[in-house]
Amino acid sequence: MSKITGFWKRTLRPAVLNALRYRTGVPVPRATVSAEAYAGDAGGRANRGRRIVTMSLSPSEPIPARTVSGALEHVEHTLTRIAHGGARADYLGQLQGAHASRAEEFVMVVDGGRVAHDSGAVITPDDRVLLGATGVVEQTDLPTNPLHLKYLPRATPVEGCLAVVTCSMPYNYYHWLMEALPRLAIYEQAALSIDRYYAPLNTRFQRETLDLLGIDRNRIERATRNRHVVAEQLAASSWDSPVARFKTDFLHRRLTSHLDGSKPPSLRIFVSRRNRGKRVLVNDNEIFAALTPLGFRRFDLETMAVADQIALFHKAECVVGPHGAGLTNIVFCRAGAKVLEINNPYRATSIFYAMAHYRKLDYHLHVADPVHDSFFHFDATKGFGDSNMRVRPAAFAALVRDFLEGKSMPSMPSMPNAIASRTAA
């Protein structure tokens, strides 16, 4: 985001909207309530026009540590820069990838519930933000966060049951697929009768995935940054649970069922971010040249229709690419496919490893050399940052060849012992 764009979104835009809505808008709610507390509230209109359906779609499932190779000296150096022991432990835990998480999903149905903004700010009739089901809270660092304003536009009424299908960052392909769309699986599990859907249609992938899932455009109430509706019945599910098996199963089942799975996957994919402007492999051409003799083809996924991306990954024998939204497509790979993710040492996250685990894919992480150019940042308090990357072509091609041949890949214990001692300090 440029400085001019940031100034408009965070300063000028809120001032303009507050001025325009001063006489006709409604105050932004400041109070919050959890879905469970709201459903069981014994005061006032207790349990009238509200109900909650809970379900356990994410049972606890331990995930083992992943294999890791590459520039581990940068991992050690990054650990020395992280200010707090807890943040260091979180960083190393994400890098290793071993975890077991469990979340309980729910659907809250509210007569006269409201929803605003393309992120889906869910508001109860008594003017409280519904925690767990809302896409944003006041603390959410979103430049267009509607809860940072003084006024919302007056709500437009919608008849019937309106289901919220969005999340805090619906404009990002990963968040859309792994947070917004799985809400449909929760509504299906709850056996709700839904008349309309509150969903954004701004991006090509939003429109295409909703079409592929059979959601009629005529049944969509378009979610925009300036939208605010009040529903006869509002259905809002939980959405921000971590990567879970029910999500990967839902997406794979619903979006690949039409594809031919009779032939074994044979395509070798190199995912490029050369046109993305951030977290790019600065020697992308050299890496691709080194992988070409192994039968890899390079793809710029942002130019492709979603249906074509789904079909592409469904044919994949092996996927190699940098950490980024495009790797979300590994959810469409068939069991047994190989995935080699490239990431920088500052962005320790195991989301794609978890996806690969649930889809029964053979996964490996390669840590690239960070490139401190125009795209670089690191927060020593949180232990999280980002940068562009460089991979050593010859050594990387040899690693990929071993991976394809099924040879044993390097594991976390090969990292310097100093890392563990500094983490424990």
Question: What does the model show?
Answer:
- This protein is an alpha/beta fold.
- The chain has two domains: 3-48 and 102-241, no CATH class; 68-101 and 248-424, 3-Layer(aba) Sandwich (Rossmann fold), CATH 3.40.50.
- The protein has 13 helices and 20 strands.
- The protein has helices at 3-20, 35-39, 72-81, 85-96, 173-180, 182-189, 204-212, 245-256, 284-291, 306-314, 351-358, 393-404, 417-424; strands at residues 26-27, 31-34, 50-58, 68-70, 103-111, 114-116, 121-123, 128-131, 151-152, 156-164, 196-199, 220-222, 228-237, 267-271, 296-299, 316-322, 338-343, 362-367, 369-379, 384-390.
- Strands 3, 5, 6, 7, 10, 11, 12 and 13 form an eight-stranded mixed beta sheet that branches. The chain has a six-stranded parallel beta sheet with strand order 4-18-17-16-14-15, with helices on both faces.
- Strand 11, helix 7 (204-212) and strand 12 (220-222) form a beta-alpha-beta unit.
- The longest helix is centred in the N-terminal third of the chain and has 18 residues, at 3-20.
- The radius of gyration is 23 Å and the shape is globular.
- The model is unreliable at 413-425 (pLDDT under 50).
Give a topology summary.
Elements: H1 3-20, E1 26-27, E2 31-34, H2 35-39, E3 50-58, E4 68-70, H3 72-81, H4 85-96, E5 103-111, E6 114-116, E7 121-123, E8 128-131, E9 151-152, E10 156-164, H5 173-180, H6 182-189, E11 196-199, H7 204-212, E12 220-222, E13 228-237, H8 245-256, E14 267-271, H9 284-291, E15 296-299, H10 306-314, E16 316-322, E17 338-343, H11 351-358, E18 362-367, E19 369-379, E20 384-390, H12 393-404, H13 417-424
Parallel strand pairs: 2-8, 4-18, 10-11, 10-13, 11-12, 14-15, 14-16, 16-17, 17-18
Antiparallel strand pairs: 1-9, 3-5, 5-13, 6-7, 6-13, 19-20
